[in-house]
Amino acid sequence: MESIIIKKALNNEFVLIAEIGVNYYDIAKKENISEMEAAKLMVKEAKEAGIHAVKFQSYKANTLAAKESPYYWDITEEPTRSQRELFEKFDSFGEKEYGEIKRYCDEIGIEFLSTPFDFESADYLNDLMNVYKISSSDLTNLPFIEHQAKKNKPILISIGASDEDEIETAINTIKKHNNQPIVLLHCVLEYPTPYEHTNLNKIVSLKNKYPNLLIGYSDHTKPDGKYDVIKTAYNLGAVVIEKHYTLDKTLKGNDHYHGMDPSDAVKILDGIIFIDKTRGDYSLKCLDSERTARKNARRSLVSAVDIKKGEIITKKMLTFKRPGTGISPSEIENILGKKATIDIAEDVTITFEMIE
Is 92 within 8 Å of 35 (Cβ atoms)? Predict the structure, then answer.
């Protein structure tokens, strides 16, 4: 099946991916519903908000992090200090559960994907997804990248905390086994990302260096009131935007505190629609809507004095006034030295019929 994400991106259309991750666990507790019901509720509200795709995370804590893996997030928001301990809270879903979520996504018309964090999940997700997502954390995990590339599906790859040579090596590893579209997602591996650390100009550098790849942005900032971070990323060339997503941004822990909620998504999408209205095309020409203003606001050659029939036109006889319905001032050199064919009163717009 064709990926909605890739289809829209190839058409240079904005794509918004809701990174549900494992936030449905906390939503389930808050709403006193099952984890599956919470996951589907989040998908449903994402669809209703106009979001194009939802992304989960597939992992088992013991294959993802060693016992002594330290935290790298804001512990005032998520106090857990061990990666293993944190991930153990959110790793009960597997092939069966994500298969059910995938079927639900198909029913309501939103694309499903999940980031695999081990070979087993990468294999079972192959039948559930149209596109793979590689986490920034696996950018140098070349055996794992190669394994996913061999599935011969489009790949989204986040490049947070990476150097140029690491990005290049990851891309080349994919291309050895896969000729499908690649989406490079600029990303800052800082949770949450302060606005001054977003480094969005990197999007321009990626577009210039990789003109044949699709460019996007995975955002970890807290939603600002005007969504300027995402709008700026889009204006700089990021067509695929991935952002953590929750139904309650006040929930402590995990990825709620820097996620968007459905109302944020609606405002983001409305903002992009407005931006697209302002963009127009790249042609260097007068717009149809400017024609009347062009005619009336530009200037014409106008007689500065009375000109008698038979007199030779000189610069002193002419001035430049609106509207632009007569001879353009750009034609003045073609008028000088010509003879008036009629008497021309002062302050009259000159036309070619008045001279020879």
Answer: yes
CA end-to-end distance (rounded Å), the chain: 71
Nearest to 176 by CA among 149, 140, 144, 213: 149
> Residue 164 sits in which domain range?
4-279
Q: Is 69 helix (H, G, I), strand (E, B) or coil?
A: coil
d(CA 206, CA 96) in angstroms, rounded, equals: 38
**Cα 332 from Cα 318, distance rounded (Å):** 9
Residues in the chain: 356
Please report where in the chains the tokens 């809270």 appear, as a residue: 89
Nearest Cα neighbor of 268 from 311, 233, 304, 318 is: 233
Longest dimension (CA), the chain: 101
Q: What is the CATH number of the domain that holds 327?
A: 3.90.1210.10
List pLDDT tens digits, range 304-346: 999 999 999 999 999 999 999 999 999 999 999 999 999 999 9
Q: pTM for this structure?
A: 0.90
pLDDT, one tens digit per residue, over 27-84 is 999 999 999 999 999 999 999 999 999 999 998 777 676 777 887 767 777 787 787 7
Say if residue 292 is in the same domain as residue 275: no
